[in-house]
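User: Reviewer 2 asked us to show a designed sequence for the structure in our supplementary figure. I'm pasting the structure tokens here. Could you produce the per-position amino acids so we can include them in the response letter?
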């Protein structure tokens, strides 16, 4: 019985969502997975939460990590958008970074939605209704774990 490539691709996406290391291990097992690794959806889905968006922190021997993060950024990975925007807003005080937080939130990034919602509540001039919409959507969709969001932001 042959399993359709679409089913394999869904498995690849599931692995990518949970572990970038396992994704690369999987891609190394056969030609099909290696080819699927070139699909933009993989780079938009792959988990990058364990990495920091500070390419200058990684030494020469960690160049593959920088390449990996850059490729994720090129494909608008929501986690990379969130990490970069979070750093720009809270560390470098760049107010324009809120727009990037919104971009990540609009594609369903949980922590971005949480941060955008909280920032909107703190600054009602920006749109309190919009902020409540982000938070209520997460609550209704049962996709939010407030404690997990707080812990993620603290880390």
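Assistant: Here is a per-position design you can include in the supplement:
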């Amino acid at each position: 019985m042959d399993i359709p490539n679409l089913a394999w691709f869904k498995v690849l996406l599931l692995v990518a969502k949970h572990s970038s290391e396992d994704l690369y291990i999987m891609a190394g097992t056969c030609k099909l997975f290696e080819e699927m690794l070139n699909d933009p959806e993989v780079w938009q889905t792959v988990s990058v939460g364990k990495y920091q968006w500070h390419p200058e922190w990684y030494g020469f021997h960690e160049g593959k990590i920088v390449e990996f993060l850059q490729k994720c950024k090129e494909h608008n990975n929501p986690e990379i958008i969130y990490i970069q925007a979070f750093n720009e807003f809270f560390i470098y005080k760049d107010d324009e970074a809120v727009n990037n937080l919104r971009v990540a939130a609009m594609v369903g990034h949980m922590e971005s939605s949480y941060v955008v919602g909280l920032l909107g509540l703190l600054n009602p001039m920006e749109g309190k209704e919009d902020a409540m919409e982000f938070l209520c959507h997460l609550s209704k969709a049962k996709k939010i774990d407030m404690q997990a969001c707080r812990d993620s932001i603290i880390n």
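For the response letter, you might also mention the following. The chain has a mean pLDDT of 78. The chain has two domains: 5-74, 78-154.
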